[in-house]
Amino acid sequence: MAVYNRSAPMLAALLLLLPSISFSFVPRTNSAARSPQLAAEPTQWLDVLKWDGAQPDFDVLELAKKYTAEPGYKSFVLRNIPTDYYSKDYIFRGPIVGPFNREDLIQTNNAFAIDKSFPDLDRQTFGYAIDPENPFRVLFFERWKATHTGECSIGGTPITAPATGNSSISPVMPFSITFNPEGKIVYETLTTAVDRFEGNTMGKVAVFGLLETAGISLDNNVGDPVLVFQQKLNRFLNGIAQTYSKAEDVPRWWKSKAVAAEKNDM
What we know:
Blueprint: H1 7-17, H2 60-68, H3 71-74, E1 86-93, H4 102-112, H5 114-117, E2 122-130, E3 137-147, E4 152-153, E5 160-161, E6 167-169, E7 173-179, E8 185-190, H6 206-213, H7 225-237
Parallel strand pairs: 1-8
Antiparallel strand pairs: 2-3, 3-6, 3-7, 4-5, 7-8
């Protein structure tokens, strides 16, 4: 008995239609051999610190190392650092403090009197590198070590803590310094811990780590509405220890309107 193949008529019909079907073949190429067109990178507002593509005529790394070796830098007594390191347009920004001009930063630094509460503070720096996208910017790491041997206080507030003798070891934290073409520091930043489980300051860094060691535990989370309110109230009351400069006192090149612990606005 003959077996009827149901697919045969369909195959025959398809073969009859082949001449009328138009096929378009795209030759395949080796993707590794192609030269892709990269999208142009958007201009970011901090690109102003790339100085229109200029190249430094000084040793950026060596100048950064010289600066961070200053006794006033290593002990975090900022008034003791020679002022000729800084541009008049200087700004400091951290995760929950800033933008600060230099004068306001020193005033707030004085209010903490770190040299009295942690007189042996040593900001240990290492891992210096030049940003491959900005030859005027140096990136590096710090680890803070100190002993709480004097009363810790925050000027203009009732907050105090007697000496505990406790040792403070912070987690490693990243820093950056950006110079202008004249070799002056125009921008300094730090950010949060590389590993918040390192050290003994509960993941807190810089001054907040020292305060944690002294038994003064302060919130330090970006976007915390209570913290932002406290910071803005303190700014309104014009307290001695501030967390950011007034808008009219911030150099004009700084564009972000977010202050202190506020979330990024750009």
